[in-house]
Q: What sequence folds into this?
DNA sequence: CGTGATTTTGACGACACTCAAATAAAGTGG
DNA sequence: CCACTTTATTTGAGTGTCGTCAAAATCACG
């Protein structure tokens, strides 16, 4: 995969004003007053990360904070034994970067499609955090939301078998990345099978077989490998163990 | 197990002043100024939860916040299929409760030994959070620490086999609950095998077999079922995949 | 259209789960 | 304090799910 430095600043006309930003309505910057928002925008640099680009790398310094406005990023940690655990897929509205630490990122962040993000210098962002308690509180809520999401993932890995894991994955993906107008039954899967496997704690073969089984049962269709159509939502909900979908939230990547 | 209401306020002489509290040096209350600390102590009710007592229950309102000063609590979530995932074991310095929500606790918290805790009314605690940004920021750091700890747990469940999981569990337990003077080679295990199993995503039989195998290999000794002595730390570190132990931190339970 | 990477399918084996029984520990009442 | 009950843990035997290894098919890209 191409991981060359393909970071570019977006030109002025591409740099939408915060007031018209789609990500804002769901993210932390949508929960602060005009003054704080102005200060935030003043230190932000809208940036494009092309597909495959490493946003930041595990164990390397983290001097920036990123607020994703478009595209998708995967977070993963490489293990000593050569394994790889993907800890999350992040999209519009999600925050990632050095909120906690300026050195030794816990994991690597990589764009799986072209990604646009507001980039803040860590120092400036933390200064705003001190000046605007609302922003700090908003981040605290985001962080506790993230802990809850991680708890769901822990349950998935600790107590669910293959079909249950894939069903939950498809439903969450369809729900969180619902594109305007879509009802969540057409799920875009921009990540590779390897990524899904490493996210669900499985092998690619097992993931592939699970997809095939879902097709055979008529639960889904796969017009493309990167696109699933959910044909039997009740069955998938049943498998995933969802009574109702979790309320929309934003993630906080480290 | 006895889960009757055995909550009692500690008498005045048992209620140690914050200035002499052992938990304070590691917890959030150790990172705020004297004024904020005074306000915090003013609304705190030191409370005893006897062994087996439910501190709060999954899906029930959460009108309090708890700061553990002694003992150990387990957090778990009951699943629709009858399963149970333990998401964490909390001890002195750890926070739990309704920081995010006043209704619908994510999981149940239960004392596995007698537990002492400072109990704060949620409303009052949140008010202090707004008035003292330092406290809010301190909690944010605690929350991001917790996210990182959950990431470790996700890796454990997603990519580790049985011996690796148990080795990691024993080392973390020995490290985090190190009693004064001890070097972390004598590990207290106040939780049942079932709890360890549900924490590590295994069955009790598998956990028991793993303990037996570690004994056979001379890695550990089990003077009592609730106490392990680590005899071969290098081997356990190797298995757990730890280069060095994570730095001490406090947890944040929801 | 051809090349390389990704995904799918197949055969086989191992690790961890299930079921079942024995042993050990903890709690209870005389 | 001891016999008894109950609960927790250990040990054993057999099974199934998912991982491993290998090859074929499909997809992406120039």
A:
């Amino acid at each position: 995969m191409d991981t060359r430095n393909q970071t570019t600043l977006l030109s002025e006309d591409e740099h939408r004003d915060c007031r018209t930003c789609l990500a804002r309505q769901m993210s932390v910057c949508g929960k602060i007053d005009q003054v704080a928002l102005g200060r935030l925008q003043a230190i932000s640099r809208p940036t494009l990360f092309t597909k495959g680009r490493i946003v930041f790398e595990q164990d390397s310094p983290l001097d920036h904070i990123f607020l994703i406005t478009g595209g998708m990023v995967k977070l993963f940690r490489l293990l000593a034994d050569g394994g790889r655990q993907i800890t999350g897929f992040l999209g519009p509205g999600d925050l990632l970067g050095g909120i906690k630490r300026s050195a030794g990122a816990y994991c690597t962040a990589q764009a799986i499609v072209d990604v646009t993000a507001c980039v803040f210098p860590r120092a400036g962002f933390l200064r705003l955090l001190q000046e605007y308690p609302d922003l700090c509180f908003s981040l605290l809520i985001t962080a506790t939301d993230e802990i809850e999401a991680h708890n769901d993932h822990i349950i998935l890995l600790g107590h669910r078998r293959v079909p249950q894991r894939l069903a939950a994955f498809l439903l969450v993906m369809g729900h969180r990345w619902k594109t305007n107008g879509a009802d969540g039954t057409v799920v875009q899967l921009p990540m590779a099978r390897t990524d899904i496997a490493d996210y669900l704690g499985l092998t690619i073969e097992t993931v592939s077989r699970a997809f095939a089984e879902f097709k055979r049962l008529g639960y889904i269709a796969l017009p493309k490998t990167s696109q699933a159509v959910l044909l039997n939502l009740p069955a998938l909900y049943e498998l995933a163990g969802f009574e109702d979908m979790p309320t929309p939230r934003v993630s906080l990547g480290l």
Q: What stands out?
A: Chain A touches chain B at residues 77, 79-81, 83-85, 87, 99-100, 106-107, 129-130, 133, 136-137, 139-141, 143-148, 150-151, 153-155, 157-159, 198, 200-201, 241, 243, 252, 254 (CB under 8 Å). Residues 1-5 of chain A have pLDDT under 50 and may be disordered. Residues 40 and 215 of chain A are 47 Å apart (CA to CA). Residues 8-150 of chain A form a domain with the Jelly Rolls fold (CATH 2.60.120.10).
